[in-house]
Amino acid sequence: MKKLQCSTKQRSAQTGFTLMEVMVVIVILGILATLVVPRVMERPEEARMTKARLDIQSIGQALDLYRLDTHDYPTTAQGLRALKEQPDGVTRWRKGGYLSKVPSDPWSNDYIYLSPGLHGDYDLLSYGADGQPGGEDSKADIGSWNLDG
């Protein structure tokens, strides 16, 4: 019985980490953080840009359905509201609308809609992170005519 107590005391003295072991783990985590965090921080903007492209595609599909029913795209004045609320003078509009809500872009700005557009029957675009025309990278315009990249 005495022998069992002795080995238990020896084991409890050996459990836990030494200060040196904890310091080594902290240094390793610090090195990993300096390598990984900059790459991860770029991802939110990429995700927002991808969401904007997907929103533009889905709004474009709703616009195409609107055109099938009404034989024309909404005017610039009617805007994207025409996909949610029936515009005055428009017959053959789908009951319930074409979108449950008109989304904002991932930067909380309204999508820009022009009909007729400069690049086709309509232009649908987001001005990107800065909310201003032009720009590069995350500040670049994302339009229905340039969804590839």
Based on the model shown, name its key terms.
single chain; 149 residues; mainly alpha; three-stranded antiparallel β-sheet; 3 strands; 6% strand
Can you put this structure into words, describing what you see?
Helix content is 44%, strand content 6%. By secondary structure, it is mainly alpha-helical. The protein has helices spanning 2-14, 19-70; strands at residues 112-114, 123-126, 142-143. The protein has a domain at 45-143: Glycoprotein, Type 4 Pilin. Strands 1-2-3 form a 3-stranded antiparallel beta sheet, with helices on one face. The model has no long low-confidence stretch (mean pLDDT 86). The chain contains 2 helices and 3 strands; from the N terminus they run ααβββ. The longest helix has 52 residues, at 19-70. The protein is elongated.
Count of separate DSSP helical elements: 2
The fourth-level CATH homologous superfamily of the domain at 45-143 is: Glycoprotein, Type 4 Pilin
Please compute the radius of gyration using only Cα atoms: 29 Å
Q: Briefly note the structural class of the backbone.
A: mainly alpha
In the CATH hierarchy, what is the class of the domain at 45-143? Alpha Beta
The average pLDDT score comes to: 86
- What is the count of β-strands? 3
Spans with pLDDT under 50 lasting ≥5 residues? none
- The global form is elongated
